[in-house]
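Please predict the structure of the following assembly.
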Amino acid sequence: MIHALFIINRSGGLIYSKNFTQQVAQLSSNEALIFAGTFHGIHALASRISPAPKRDSVKDTGIQSIDTKNFRIHCYQTPTGIKFIAVTDLLQTKLSGALNKAYTLYCDYALKNPFYNLEMPIRSEMFDTKLHQLVQSH
Amino acid sequence: MVVVYTIYIFDRHCECIFYTEWNRGRSPLSAERSAAAATVGGRSDGSKEPANTAHAVDGTGTHLSGDSQRPLVWPTTANSTANRVSLESPRNIAMEEEAKLVYGVAFSTRNIINKLNSKDGPQGGNPGGFMSFATNTYRLHYYESPTGVKFILTTDIAAVSMQPVLEMIYRNIYVEYVVKNPLFNVDPHTSSPIENDYFRAVLNNYIREISSTTTVA
C-alpha cells in the first residue's frame, strides 16, 4: 500500500506531492517543500559518509529506503537526478518497479507535454489519474 | 553475516562522545588518516584491527596502558592530554567533521519522519520511530534513548534490524559501564567523551559476538 508519493527535481525542489491514504500526515505545501529540501540534502550526504570499504566499481548512490516504526520510505533516483519518493506500509520491501513505472508516467504525461516547463510543478490531470491507477494496483 | 562498520554515540548536546570502527575502509573524509596511522604505527593495515581488539578484550592488561593499538576515541574537551591531541590531531579533524555529518543526516531524517508521522506525540524524542536507512553500500541504524542519548550504528545492507542490538548496547553496556560509573560526569550542561576502557572492551566483545553468531545462523 502506497501512502504518499513525492517527486523532487534535480535541485531539490518539490514538483509533485500527493497523499493516497490517511496513514501519514498530510503535509502543508510549506512542510512538503521542507521535506523535499531536507530529503535532497540527506540523500546527498548519505553517500558521502559511507563507511563501507571503497570499491572502484561500486559508488554509493544515496538513500534507497528508510525504515521507521509505522512506515517505510522508498527512493528511486533516475539517471537524470529526479527522485521519486514513496511512503508505503512496512510490507513493501521493494518498490523500485512501481517507482520506475511512475517515472515512465512522468515521461509520458509530463515531459512529453509541450506546455510543461522543466523543473516546475506537475499539473496534469492525466498524470494524476494514471498515477492513481498505478498506486491502486499496488 | 553482519558486518559492523562504525558506532557513534551522541549526547544531548549533539556532541559525539564515543566512536569506534571495525572492518572499515578508507573514507574520502579521512584521507589524511594514513598519515596519522603511520605516526601512530601499526594502524595502516585495516585487517589488523580485529586482532587488536581481541587482544584488548582478552584482558591482558595492555589495553589499559593507553597504547596506540586500541581504537581511537577523539578528545572533544580539554581534559584529554596534550600529547594525545598532537598524536591524533591529523585524523581527528576529519573524524569530527564526519561525526557532524553523520549526526546531521540522522537528525534531519528523524525530523522529517516525525513530521510525516500523523499521530501527534510528545515533542522531541523519536515519536516517529526512525529505525534505519539504507543506501546501496551501507545501512545506518538509529536508536535514541528516552534521555536523548543517540546511538548510531552502521552496518552492511544485509543487517535489516539492529534495534534490539542498539537497545542492548544502551541498556546493558552504556548504562552499566558509563552511567553507573561514579566518575560519570553528571553535569547536564557539559558533555565529556567516554574514556572508559571497560566500556570499550565490553562493546568490542559484544559486537564481535553478534558478528560471529549471525554468521553461524
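The beta strands of chain A are 2-8, 14-19, 65-68, 72-77, 83-88. Chain A has three helices and five strands.
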